[in-house]
Design a protein that fits this description.
alpha/beta, five-stranded antiparallel beta sheet, five-stranded parallel beta sheet, 8 helices, 29% helix, 19% strand, globular
Length: 329
């Protein structure tokens, strides 16, 4: 068991845009602050706890543990429980499967392949290896301002983007770690050359939560229950139909039942004209031709830095999640 520094969580909710813009010192009238409100970041929502049959999640659970008998099994990538503890998918190099679940409770954490909490048996969802980068453990981040700057500096280092573009990408990274808190998830529509768009999507995959690089908008190949940051390299016929449920919580698609898919999304649309009115709610970004390219080899060279940023963002999520008045995923 790893003991993490204790945090004092405020009792009142606050919007993600207020948290980041206030802590980062972004003026309320700035372009970044305005963009943060376009996609609904100025409001938060309270999500009802997910129900599994007639099972109840009330009560104060100790850190997850395993038992000899077989309780109700739940495959998950993240779970927020009614006792204010929660589970997160993490890298677990000690296991042959490579992934585990971190159970965070009362500022203490434990990583295991499985956790049994209140007669529910939680295990990592199948095919979780589709996620580009996973954290391994929470790491102290200092302050919101310091973490924001560290991620923005990483983007500047690997892309040579200007301040406006790198701050926007950094804010998208923060929003991706709190997508279940938002009434409307961010949707970034990229324009410019193909090679620069591929590089930008690859950079976003390094810093966003549960990021998946995709060649199309189809969700059928993704594991049930996974609501990743979708990074799509080209528009297709299905994109117009999916932009609404990708952005708005509560609207689902039929896929072996009704499936919720809202979450942070970035799509390279190039010169294509999207027909859906929901495209107007996205944030359009024209990639400057002076942007440096970022290859898979560059990504491998920056792996240590990327892992450290993911770990710090995990700690940031644990310390800020309940400020956004979230009960469950």
């Amino acid at each position: 068991m790893t003991v993490i520094k204790r945090h004092n969580f405020p009792s009142s909710a606050e919007s993600l845009s207020n948290i980041v813009c206030r802590d980062e010192g972004i003026p309320s009238g700035s372009l970044l602050a305005q963009k943060s409100r376009v996609a609904g970041l100025s409001t938060t929502r309270k999500v009802l706890p997910r129900k599994h049959g007639n099972l109840k999640h009330a009560g104060n659970a100790a850190l997850g543990h395993t038992r000899d008998h077989k309780p109700y099994q739940i495959f998950t990538s993240a779970e927020v429980l009614r006792d204010s503890s929660f589970l997160e998918l993490v890298v677990d190099p000690s296991k042959s499967e490579g992934v585990g679940l971190l159970h965070w409770s009362n500022t203490k954490s434990a990583v295991a392949r499985e956790h049994v909490i209140n007669d529910c048996h939680y295990v990592p969802m199948a095919s979780s290896d589709v996620i580009r980068h996973l954290p391994s453990q929470p790491v102290a981040y200092g302050s919101t301002s310091a973490l924001f700057k560290e991620i923005a500096d990483f983007i500047a280092k690997v892309s040579s983007l200007g301040e406006t573009e790198r701050n926007l990408l950094t804010f998208i990274c923060f929003s991706a770690f709190f997508s279940e808190c938002l009434n409307t998830s961010l949707c970034l529509l990229l324009h410019g050359s193909v090679v620069h768009a591929i590089s930008m999507l690859r950079i976003l995959s390094c810093i966003c939560r549960h990021s998946v690089l995709l060649a199309g908008s189809s969700i059928r190949a993704l594991p049930q229950g996974l609501r990743p940051t979708r990074l799509i390299c080209q528009p297709d016929n299905g994109l117009d139909k999916l932009l609404a449920p990708m952005q708005f919580s509560g609207f689902g698609v039929v896929d072996c039942g009704l499936r919720q898919i809202s979450g942070a999304t970035a799509v390279y649309v190039g010169d294509a004209e999207l027909k859906t009115p929901f495209a107007e709610l996205g944030i359009s970004l024209f990639i400057p031709p002076t942007m440096s390219l970022f290859s898979q080899q560059d990504e491998e060279r920056e792996l240590e830095v990327i892992n450290n940023l993911q770990n710090k963002m995990l700690m940031y999520r644990t310390s800020k999640l309940f400020q956004c008045e979230v009960c469950s995923i």
